[in-house]
Write a structure and sequence with these properties.
Blueprint: H1 5-26, E1 36-37, H2 41-54, E2 70-71, E3 75-78, E4 86-98, H3 100-103, E5 105-110, E6 120-143, E7 146-173, E8 179-199, H4 207-219, H5 221-248, E9 257-258
Parallel strand pairs: 1-9
Antiparallel strand pairs: 2-4, 3-4, 4-6, 5-6, 6-7, 7-8
The chain binds 2-acetamido-2-deoxy-beta-D-glucopyranose (2 copies).
């Protein structure tokens, strides 16, 4: 069969139609998220809250990763001399952050503007009564004069966590004439009331030595947190950035908001 100019054209139109239907299906907000007015922070906060609750398992068709748990990259921490009695090199791998989406209370979401000539600076405030990091660890260090060289399972329990996340999103105009947000940066600051470490396999599970070491470690939580917290924040932010990027990838910014 030979394709004439006209039938070729029909084939193209069919294809275009099919493609744009495919795109339509993935555009817009995934239900149950709703559009808000740009200035309506209460509504924006409610949507962020809904997002955490409704998309625990991510949105696979939009390449939005799981929120429960959130998979974190490897975290490498070298103690920065905040304490003479505690020095270590710690590698955390296979890390997963649990309970964030289920316990998150969103307190604020600001920074959306109509001005698309410069990057948007968004701020998300959130409180979490309880989150946990579950991971594998490999540590080489010393506590007082006691060498600690071990690997095993690590749990970090964090209570009453306040997080301020700053997200930078760059407006990018695509060939369809619409502007989309490209999440280019994420920084998180956190305040944690109480943190607790648990390490399996410490001292080949010599229980007494293990328990007393963990006790001292946890008494030193504030010092430990100076080294650990920023790295955990960075890892969470990286995961969060990719989650947001997936969510916003195919929603034109002009469809984010209800008309004023
Ligand atoms: C946190 O997550 C763990 C692992 O999924 C679960 O066993 C635990 O019950 C959760 N805790 C809270 C407070 O939701
Ligand atoms: C989106 O941002 C990343 C940096 O985070 C950059 O590498 C990429 O080129 C940007 N994409 C577009 C379409 O501007």
């Amino acid at each position: 069969m030979q394709l004439t100019g006209a039938s070729m054209c029909l084939v193209w139109m069919g294809l275009l139609c099919w493609v744009s239907q495919g795109v339509d299906a993935s555009e817009g907000f995934p239900s149950p998220l709703k559009r808000c007015k740009l200035e309506d922070e209460t509504c924006l906060v409610a949507q962020a809250q809904t997002f955490f609750k409704a998309f625990k398992n991510g949105i696979p068709e939009r390449h939005v990763g799981s929120l429960e748990p959130i998979e974190l990259d490897r975290i490498r921490i070298e103690s920065g001399g905040h304490s003479d009695s505690l020095q270590f090199k710690l590698l955390i791998s296979d890390a997963k952050l649990h309970n964030l989406s289920t316990t998150a209370i969103v307190k604020g979401l600001k920074g959306f503007t109509k001005d698309l000539t410069k990057p948007l600076k968004l701020t998300l405030l959130m409180e979490n009564p309880e989150v946990e990091v579950h991971a594998k660890y490999d540590v080489d260090g010393k506590l007082l004069i006691l060498p600690i060289v071990s690997k095993g399972d690590l749990t970090i329990r964090l209570k009453d966590v306040q997080v301020k996340t700053r997200i930078t999103a760059e407006p990018v105009k695509r060939s369809d004439g619409h502007t989309y947000l490209n999440v280019t940066d994420c920084k998180a600051l956190s305040k944690i009331k109480r943190g607790q470490f648990d390490l399996s396999n410490l001292f080949s599970d010599n229980k007494e030595l293990r328990d007393s070491t963990l006790k001292v470690l946890n008494q030193e939580w504030d010092t430990l947190a100076l080294d650990v917290q920023p790295r955990v924040n960075d890892a969470c932010c990286k995961a969060f950035k990719s989650i947001l990027q997936g969510l916003w990838a195919n929603i034109p910014y002009d469809e984010f908001f209800e008309a004023e």
